[in-house]
Amino acid sequence: MLYNKFLNVKTSPWIIALDISGYILFVCLLISLTIHYIMHTGYLKPLAEIGQAARKVAEGDFTVRIHGKRKDGLKDELEVFIEDFNKMVEELATIESLKEDFIANISHEIKTPLAVIQSYATLLRKEGISKEEKENYIQTVLEASSKLSDLVSNVLRLTKLENQEIIQKSSYSLAEQLRLCILSLDEKFEEKNIELEIDIDEVMIVSDASLLDIVWNNLLTNAIKFTEPGGRIKVLLHQENETAIVTIADTGCGIDDNICKRIFDRFYQGDTSHLVEGYGLGLSLVKRVIDLVGGRILVTSENGKGSTFTVRLNN
Ligand SMILES: Nc1ncnc2c1ncn2[C@@H]1O[C@H](COP(=O)(O)OP(=O)(O)OP(=O)(O)O)[C@@H](O)[C@H]1O
Ligand SMILES: [Mg+2]
Fold it and tell me: What CATH code is carried by the domain that includes residue 175?
């Protein structure tokens, strides 16, 4: 059109209209090609990549990660989505490895007492063993099967608690519950000649008594287990405003800082010298219960001097 004007050529209005339409068509084509290019490189390609990564995750590959698309470091919706996707895969990988570790740990722990039972049962079949030997073998088999039974019931309890969200609250005397728990462990205290200091206020709470039983039992059993004979254990209960505070302190071996970070992990046991007893499930149960009842647990410890576990429960 401009060209015609420039040459001063007389053109019919039809030609001009045709020129304009051609021009508009050309611009539209350019715009749609640009949009298509932006959509393809900016969204469709990354979306296809995400879809492919999601399929890999569904097949059990948790190593896939998607790289960010923007070079300028800015975050649009797609970048946020990619970031969330990567985070989700990371979480899934952690859950999967925890599950695998858990199964591996259980299998290992089950194998040990089973092997003991098998070998001692074989020994029992031998002819000519004395009555005393027989008694010893039977005792070992009984101890191993009781260990196995403890392991199975603790694993079942933990699995049940991990799937539980609802608790059965009632108002009861926390003081009475602590006293009863201490009484039930009387024999163990005496066996190790442990001095017990009790300072318990009459505190009532509204919570799940059967769940909190697990907490006191495990914390006290640990305190006894990790305290040398002749040591001291303190059990305190006080109330601060609406919060009941239970403190269980011992003069035992204490917990190293590195170990302290992991004591609530399933199957984690700190000191190898104590590996013979327990499975490292007690404090995982404690932590789960405390989370369920909405409380808090705090540990302070000094290597070689003792540990203090403080539980705070809000009414
Ligand atoms: N009072 C304590 N003093 C010193 N170390 C402790 C104390 N309580 C817990 N620990 C450390 O934390 C680890 C984990 O405790 P947890 O109660 O979960 O397992 P456990 O007592 O070894 O076994 P389980 O409770 O299954 O019988 C222990 O192995 C120990 O190293
Ligand atoms: Mg324990």
Answer: 3.30.565.10
